[in-house]
Amino acid sequence: MARLRPHLLLALTVLAASGASAAEWEGSLKATSRVLVDTNASRDFSDANTPSTGLDQALSLLGSAEGRATFERSQLVGRYELGLRKYLGFTDEDTLVHSGAVEGSLALGAELGLGVEGHAKDRRGGSRAYSDLGASAFVEYAPDVRLALRLRAGARRFVYRPDSTANFGGPEFGVLGRYRFNRRHSVSVFGEWGSRGFGTQARTRPATPDTPAPAAPGRREDGGLTAGVSYTYRGPVALGLGYAYQEVSSNSFGETVMRHRVTGNAGVRLPWKLTLLAQGSLGYTTYPDGIYLSPQIILIEEDEGQNSLSLKLARPVTERVDVEVSWGLWSTRLPRNALTYTRQVFGVGFTWRD
User: Where is this region: Disordered (predicted)?
Assistant: First the structure.
């Protein structure tokens, strides 16, 4: 995993040293092992005449660790996740993913706080290897337990290993607000904007019979905007609903993308100590220039498509071990060229918690 920036680590060290003798420590560990059947292990796009032939079996290992140290006026929070997937046939799709995040905050009073945060994610293997790094400073306002508002400013660096023309970096700004009506109902709003600078020349808009070709736009520069709202309910059934709008505006022809996405999740306890978890999403993406990006770029995100649905049924077998059965479906359709991406994954495994 890529290293966090030195100034971030220094700030966190200072926070830790400020009250180490009075620290309260919390931590947890979790590990999951699954045997999977993947109907499209090669992640191929296909049309009606060429159905996917990527059926394969795989072993999946997931691990996570979280820790929190609370001092008199400051707090440190960290988490680390590791994921490994090994295929029997499509070994080119074997993946290893590391991700970590750390945050340090300092209270300036009963309502105001300052802090720094950083994250790093590194994915190797398959056709979508990338590294995503970021660090930022934030100010948080929380006048009571119902309301919390956070403003942040920082920088991000993204490296896409199969194609260096997709690498970018630049400043980012964000806002997050949460309001709790009571212990069961809460709503959140969020927004992010980032300026993305690339090391390649922007693609010039082609000439038409009525419009001559414009002057070369120079280096590619994008603006990335994300905004949305979510609602959470905690009761006999746990529910979550969300909507997000994402827009990447580029001076490079064919690279502008607009995306609407609706997500939902639910969890409910069933008889015989069973727990059912469900997640789903629906997305609609448009490309104003009428050019679709390569599947490798589209599938950078872990959701792997515009539309998804997953179900998991779990039951404890001991105090710390659960057995689970899972199923997931991901799909994307590119209407202009009639290509579709469909993938189902069936799994059975165990989860251990510390």
Answer: 198-224
